[in-house]
Amino acid sequence: MKRIYLGAEAEILLHHMLDVEVIVKRRVSKSYRNPHLDRKINERRTLHEATMMKRAREAGVCTPFIYHINPKRAVIIMEYINLPTYIDIINSSSEDIFQISQDVGKAVGKLHNNQIIHGDLTPSNILVGKEICLIDFSLSSYSSDIEKMGEDLCVFYNALRSSIPQKYASLFENFKQGYLEEREEAADKVFHRLSEILKRGRYVRRGFTEV
Amino acid sequence: MSNTLNENASITSSSILSLGIESTAHTFGVGIVNDGGKVLSNIRYVYRSRTGIHPREASRFMSRHAVEALSEALSQASLSLKDLSIISFSRGPGLGPCLRTGATFARFLSSYLKKPLVGVNHCVAHIEIGRMLTGARDPVILYLSGGSTQVISYLEGVYRIFGETEDIAIGNFIDTFARSAGLSFPGGPIVEELARKGRNLIDLPYVVKGMNVSFSGLLTYLESLIGKYPIEDLCYSLQETAFSMLVEVCERAMAYLKKDELLLVGGVGVNTRLREMCRKMCEERGASFYVPPAEFCVDNGAMIAWNGILHYTKGDILPVSQSHILTKWRVEDVSVKWWEG
Asked: Between 20 and 30 A from A201 (CA), which of A193, B115, B250, B328?
């Protein structure tokens, strides 16, 4: 098994199973935590993440297919989707990045229509192929709260703004268009809340108004 | 490590002597520090009560002991009033009546001695004394006290908050639980003592949202368990659960910011179990863990004096006429002009 990423919470391994490449996501045990608490947290989060991925898939959003879950060992084995991330695509700029941004908006809109909050919508968690695939549901939740949906878009907006300062505004406009198409009138409330969230002192300097 | 740094500092000759006055919550502190980072004196008078801090009573306590604290600080440092170069005071955030007492005292000294007045952010002062004493360079900072629970790090000219509590602070949470359980104030040391005897981990809510934490639900649940479980087990489970949440968000911030130092500051930083957990987390990541001696974790005048010097060397002087206190002064609103990563 080859480790391709190590986060604060889990490691991502690339593995061959019967000639198929698969992703193994394993939550790492933390020695600072009480062992009982450690097992409980990792078990619960593993189950939760797998459940949310399944729900997203049922809502019509592409997510990696889950082959196997072992909550006791905090392991999810899933499909390896070998596609460039949204950030790669924008940097290569050979594709129609505005159409792709719209498609990303549609995918997120679909999630929100089904009360699924992704929780970590950074450009590197979005894969671009024939359709848009979303990965890493470890911070996801189930909610119909406008605030949560606004926060979801806020994470995406801020990540976009810091990684592509020249083009973020037009890309985000296209993202919003796709989101609007998918959600229709429900979208306006979320956009309105997003602009409120962006004005809060916590996230940016006071007096900041965009979007 | 802190001692050697301090001794080195004393060798270098100094020209600025800063008096620091701390009065944000229950501690009235007066400290004297020179611009080499040597702490010449650090006197603390702590308002005690069995139930918590009554702001008016605390401020009266402070005005009663202010002069006493000042003369003790001067005699410990073998200095007289006229030797001081600047008067620094904690301008916020904190309890209004307490801040006003310290500020009034500072304004008086500044006007009477005709020495510059410097307003200091209490939270930045905690961070800066921690960095100075431990040698941490560009850490992720876990700031935990009675009123604050924040994960902070330096980014583009300010100390930015990356994670914090969504409701009550960790110290406030422990104190409130202790009071409900019939233990005295402050609850931290008693809860820590009882937790050592606890053996059984009770299932408690574990609330981490991204890089934020929340304690109010945990508090309500714990209060409902008082009397149903041994108090030792409750305290043990409280510490294990709440501290795991805090260490987890720190680790997330360190991974996100790609920083390999953690600095623990604030009054809750004296807790041995918390320090042990932070140290283990850092070891596993190959990062370094720093925490200042207990005397400088809790509120103290020396940290205000030291931060006053940092401000003063960059020309930040506060005219007495504009020296109103700032009870809700956020750490992000202070421009860190003295930064060298």
From this structure: B250
